[in-house]
Design goal:
The complex is a heterotrimer of chains A (about 400), B (about 350) and C (about 300). Chain A has about 400 residues and is an alpha/beta fold. Chain A folds into two domains: about 30-150 and about 295-370, Rossmann fold (3-Layer(aba) Sandwich), CATH 3.40.50; about 150-280 and about 375-399, Response regulator (Rossmann fold), CATH 3.40.50.2300. Helix content of chain A is about 45%, strand content about 15%. Chain A has 13 helices and 14 strands. Chain A has helices spanning about 1-20, 45-65, 85-100, 110-120, 150-165, 180-190, 210-220, 235-245, 260-265, 295-310, 315-335, 340-345, 390-399; strands spanning about 30-40, 75-80, 105, 125-130, 145, 170-175, 195-205, 225-230, 250-255, 275-280, 350, 355-360, 375-380, 380-385. In chain A, strands 2-1-3-4-5 form a five-stranded parallel β-sheet, with helices on both faces. Chain A has a four-stranded parallel β-sheet with strand order 7-6-8-9, with helices on both faces. Chain A has a three-stranded antiparallel β-sheet with strand order 10-13-14. In chain A, about 55% of the residues are buried. Chain B is mainly alpha-helical. Chain B has one domain (about 5-80, about 115-345): Orthogonal Bundle (ABC transporter involved in vitamin B12 uptake, BtuC), CATH 1.10.3470. Chain B contains 14 helices and six strands. In chain B, α3 (about 60-80) packs parallel to α7 (about 145-165) and α12 crosses α13 (about 295-310). Chain B is globular. Chain C has helices at about 5-35, 40-55, 60-85, 90-115, 140-165, 165-175, 175-180, 185-215, 220-235, 240-260, 265-280, 290-295; strands at about 130-135, 135-140. In chain C, β1 and β2 form a beta hairpin. Chain C is globular, with a radius of gyration of 19 Å. In chain C, α1 crosses α9, α2 packs parallel to α4 (about 90-115) and α9 crosses α10 (about 240-260). Residues about 290-295 of chain C have low confidence and may be disordered. In chain C, strands 1-2 form a two-stranded antiparallel ribbon. Classes of the chains: A alpha/beta (about 400), B mainly alpha (about 350), C mainly alpha (about 300). The interface between A and B is large, with 62 and 66 residues.
Chain lengths: ~400, ~350, ~300
């Protein structure tokens, strides 16, 4: 008999749930366009999703304060995926079918983006990913775009700098997250054509406590002339620190995932002289006044800094680009019709974002060229434009 | 009341059908997406309930079995064998001739040759069974914290291997997993048009699993398990082969987990390392505990409610926090589960018969 | 392998090992007085680090660390009083789940208080690149700090448990709870005290390792798993053995890097743990009899 009551309770609970879900959802308001965002505000990728979510919320507030776009306000629905693909999938379906959003911004990681790519294609919903991996837009899917620069350009930038310095044999250390793996892939793929040889490669975990053992392993290989440390997690600062602690003065190249002043603070004195490609957001205040991006970069980084009491990072910038590209496309299209906005994004030319100047085309759903990267370095705990080392210059003068 | 025990299950089936009809009427069919996912997670949870509640063994590594099922099926059904076939690999040509392989078109029009989901599913289940046996024999000799640590360790190893191996897609996991054609016109996939069908596939799998466990618990095996839970030594003395019963229940629950992993992977069209993470295992254990340990109905209800709300994103960034709070509150005030609170005594007509 | 490389691996191993060991000690104290494993121990480590970092912005470093340790001890005591003190003989399973719940809550609270960003205390001596030459290899002074703090804690603990009456009462409580109660010892207070002590040690550990490992809201979990592994490896309840096992595991991990990719490092150390659990469940250094008696 007892079981009977237990089951009756279960059944009642399920009915309660059924009634709860059957309640009509909030009545759609006129003149408000729903835009979804799936971001990793918590979980393993929260150092990306956090700034992205804050930035997108801030920008939407501003857009709405200015009266919206084409007279319509944006209703932003942010979903925290906790950096897991299964939640991203659930939320993507929810946003597409239930909320009928115009577009989805994010996700923050390439794994989540790849997981919902097909869903957005099937649901004919624009996806503006904030993840870097090249496979998101290559091959091109009709509704899928991304805002961070291509990995391959960052790799080429690094290799070009290496060629100038006469470096041919390198070691690669990468994070074991999606960003690190995609970068490692590109580093390995492009190396031969640039005359670079990767003689050692290792990956490390985001939870790494200390990496001096792997540094010792790589250091023991005397062929190595430079180290590329490709990661997006804080542990990348540990690598840098351990290399310098081992008394190894090898040139270290970082990826565009290093674009967060917190990482520089974490690495402290060891961060001095690191070389890495990044968008110009990090050096906004030192850009010449006539630089195309100057205005928007300084405006965004000051606003972010004042509002959230932390320096702007390139990750937040990817979120900024995603929402602003969408807003611009809506303006251009003059409507909030999904197809029209999608076409407008695909034909967007010369859009100035934080990552660079976007020129989309049907074949290129990223829209950034290699010039969107500048080579930066760290000097006195700040990001500055990287100029060729004076040593090399004097040599060339002697020649 | 031999037949009586099927009445509640029949009621449950009616409710599940009712929910589907209700969503149809109100135009809220999209809720079925999360309900389908929830049903698969619930399948794992009721399996774990058997191990924890009835055999009294904690397992902090069940997400590992889920991942073994999901990943094996995902790798086999997405790995493109065309290059191997072109190289003249005998095994592959034999497999193709025997109908184990299928060809399909990728999103970009590329032709892929891969293993059919059915054989992939069978391989995944066999693998999960084998691993459960191998790990179960030594692990189930341990008790208390050691058992918790050993199963947790097993889960971590699976997570690490998934994260470190190129074949498992590392951090990105595996995406573009094709639908699972159970029968012609009966496909496990996330396709928007297949939603109602998939809801029923998931619900029937869950109900069949539930009936299986319910019958098991009411049988000799169930009595033996309860004896083990009470006192392993006493059970042993009475001639119950405790080691074997513990092992079999562990393996059975691993198969449940693997099956849930396989079906959900095909439904989602992909799987990532987070499915193998420690937090997932902890979540499953917690749901069983909240449901009242030796209580299949409790585990089922809690799995349904908590997973559904979490997948709907009801708690936003506070998902884990809400979960942790529920966990603590129930463990403190209702350690035997919500459905065993004294308040329910009120509804009882007479003391429960033996 | 050249001798220089050998020493580099060795030093790296000692660095890892000392971090694991200092976390493991905290587990043992609560285990000894209560017989439960506190799955929230890693969160004490994180809290100590986070609090010290926040306090350091207005206080000098030693003061900030001291205060952080005190606050964490208070939190430890509160947690015990609110969640554990009033339970009547809870089962192991229930305790495991409650402490897991507590760890989730502390972590989520930290996320909403401090945000997701990474922080760290400054190096106690020198900075990120300061090193000391030792056996022809470089070692960061912070590693020496971790090792010394670890040794001092173990030393003080053994003095405390052997010679102070409070320590003896706690041991009595560990050996036989009922007998201890009959002797007039308040076992409940002893349990609260053990939570305070291990929270304090965890917090101190969090402060000392923060410059090396950094502190993030979720950094406690990883450390706790390693600490737990080490505690079990050494034999649950034995702090001295935990330190030895910690250093041993660290060295094994460091040398494992020379043969297998770093990506599998964790899988290897956990596989090792499983192996030990299967063949010597009382730990590497514990004997079966001692495990039965539960001594410090």
């Amino acid at each position: 008999m007892r079981r009977f009551f237990l089951s009756a309770v279960t059944v009642l609970a399920l009915w309660a749930m059924a009634i709860f879900i059957a309640l009509p959802t909030a009545v759609a308001q006129a003149k408000s366009i729903k835009v979804g965002a799936i971001l990793a505000e918590t979980g393993g990728a929260s150092n990306l999703g956090g700034p992205e979510a804050r930035t997108i919320k801030m920008q939407v507030e501003q857009i709405n304060a200015k009266g919206g776009i084409n007279g319509d306000t944006i209703e932003l629905i942010v979903k925290d995926s906790g950096s897991t693909p299964e939640k991203a999938i659930s939320f993507a379906k929810q946003l597409i079918e239930e909320e009928k959003v115009l577009a989805i911004l994010g996700p923050s990681t390439s794994g989540e983006t790849m997981a919902i790519k097909q869903i957005c294609e099937d649901g004919k919903t624009i996806l503006l990913s904030c993840a870097a991996a090249e496979k998101i837009v290559n091959p091109v899917a009709k509704y899928v775009f991304k805002t961070p620069q291509k990995d391959s350009y960052a790799v080429k930038k690094i290799y070009m700098e290496m060629q100038k310095m006469g470096i041919a044999k390198i070691a690669v250390l990468a994070g074991n997250d999606g960003f690190g793996m995609a970068g490692k892939e590109q580093l390995e793929a492009i190396a031969p054509e640039m005359g670079i040889q990767i003689v050692a490669a290792e990956v490390y975990d985001k939870g790494a406590t200390d990496l001096s053992a792997v540094v010792a392993k790589i250091k023991a290989n005397t062929e190595i002339q430079a180290v590329v440390n490709w990661s997006i997690v804080p542990a990348q600062a540990i690598v840098v620190k351990n290399i310098r602690q081992a008394g190894w003065n090898v040139p270290i190249f970082q990826s565009h995932g290093f674009g967060n002043l917190k990482y520089v603070e974490a690495a402290g004195a060891a961060a001095e002289g690191l070389i890495f490609p990044a968008g110009r957001l990090l050096i906004a205040d030192t850009l010449p006044a006539d630089h195309q991006q100057k205005n928007i970069l300084t405006q965004y980084s000051t606003e972010y800094q004042t509002k959230f009491q932390e320096p702007a990072s390139t990750f937040g910038g990817h979120g900024y680009d995603a929402i602003m590209i969408l807003a611009e496309a809506m303006k251009k299209a003059g409507s909030s019709d999904s197809e029209k906005v999608r076409n407008a994004i695909e034909n967007l030319q010369g859009f100035v974002g934080t990552a660079g100047i976007f020129n989309f085309s049907p074949a290129d759903h990223n829209g950034l060229d290699i010039e969107s990267f500048a080579m930066l370095t760290v000097k006195d705990g700040k990001f500055v434009q990287y100029n060729e080392p004076p040593v090399l210059k004097t040599i060339s003068v002697v020649k | 009341m031999k037949a009586g025990k099927y009445i509640p299950v029949a009621l449950l089936a009616l409710v599940l059908i009712g929910i589907q009809q209700l969503t149809q009427m109100t135009g809220t069919v999209y809720y079925l997406t999360q309900m389908t996912m929830t049903a698969y997670y619930a399948l794992l949870v009721i399996g774990l309930c058997l191990v924890m509640g009835y055999a009294g063994q904690i397992s902090l590594g069940h997400a590992g079995f889920f991942a073994i099922g999901g990943y094996t099926s995902a790798v086999l059904t997405t790995y493109n064998l065309t290059p191997l076939l072109e190289k003249g690999n005998v095994l592959i040509s034999f497999m193709q001739a025997s109908g184990v392989l299928v060809t399909r078109q990728s999103l970009y029009g590329q032709t892929l040759l891969s293993v059919h989901p059915w054989p992939a599913c069978i391989v995944a289940l066999i693998l999960a069974t084998a691993i459960a046996f191998l790990i179960g024999i030594p692990v189930l000799k341990l008790k208390g914290h050691y058992l918790a640590m050993a199963t947790l360790g097993f889960g971590i190893i699976i997570y690490r291997v998934a994260l470190a191996s190129e074949i498992f897609g590392q951090a990105d996991g595996i995406s573009a997993v094709p639908g699972f054609v159970l029968l012609p016109d009966l496909i496990v996939s996330g396709d928007f048009n297949n939603r109602v069908q998939n809801y029923y596939i998931a619900c029937s799998t869950l109900i069949i699993g539930f009936l299986l466990l319910q019958n098991l618990i009411d049988s000799r095996v169930g009595r033996a398990l309860r004896a083990i839970h009470g006192s392993e030594e006493a059970a042993n003395a009475m001639g119950v082969n405790t080691t074997r019963y513990k092992l079999y229940t562990f393996v059975l629950s691993a198969v449940f987990a693997a099956l849930a992993g396989i079906l959900l992977t095909h439904y989602n069209g992909g799987i990532g390392p987070s499915e193998a993470g420690i937090m997932k295992s902890v979540r499953y254990v917690a749901i069983v505990a909240i449901g009242g340990m030796a209580n299949l109905w409790g585990a089922l209800t809690m799995a349904a409610i908590l997973n559904f709300l979490s997948l709907r994103g009801m708690f936003g960034s506070y998902d884990d926090a809400v979960f942790g709070s529920i966990l603590i509150i129930i463990m403190l005030f209702a350690p035997n589960g919500l459905l065993r609170l004294p308040i329910w005594q009120f509804f009882k007509k007479s003391p429960a018969g033996k | 392998m050249t001798s220089q490389l050998f020493f580099q691996y060795l030093v790296a191993g000692i660095t890892y090992g000392s971090i694991y060991a200092i976390v493991a000690i905290g587990f043992n104290i609560i285990y000894n007085t209560t017989g439960i494993i506190n799955f929230a121990q890693g969160e004490f480590v994180m809290l100590g680090g986070m609090l010290a970092i926040s306090l350091h912005s207005m206080l000098p470093l030693p003061l900030a660390i001291g205060l952080a340790v005190l606050i964490t001890m208070l939190i430890g005591a509160l947690i015990e009083i609110i969640f554990i003190r009033w339970l009547k003989s809870p089962s192991i399973l229930r305790m495991i789940i409650i402490t897991i719940g507590i760890s989730i809550l502390i972590r989520e609270a930290a996320l909403h208080v401090w945000g997701e960003g990474v922080r760290s205390l400054p190096y106690f001596n020198g900075n990120e690149i300061t090193t000391i030459q030792l056996w022809g290899t470089n070692i960061s002074p912070q590693v020496l700090w971790v090792i010394s703090v670890c040794s001092i804690i173990v030393l003080l603990l053994s003095i405390f448990f052997k010679y102070t009456s409070l320590g003896q009462e706690m041991r009595a409580c560990a050996a036989n709870r009922l007998a201890a109660t009959l002797c007039g010892i308040s076992t409940k207070n002893m349990v609260t005290f053990s939570f305070m002590l291990s929270a304090g040690i965890g917090a101190l550990a969090g402060c000392v390792v923060s410059p090396i490992t950094y502190t993030q809201y979720d950094s406690g979990t990883g450390l706790a798993i390693k600490g737990f592994t080490v505690a079990v490896l050494g034999g649950l309840g034995n702090s001295m053995a935990a330190v030895a096992a910690g250093i041993l595991l660290g060295i094994i991990e460091a040398f494992s890097v020379s043969v297998v990719p770093l990506a599998f490092q964790d899988a290897i150390s956990i596989a090792l743990l499983l192996l030990i659990l299967f063949i010597r469940p009382h730990g590497l250094f514990g004997s079966k009899e001692a495990a039965g008696l539960k001594d410090f």
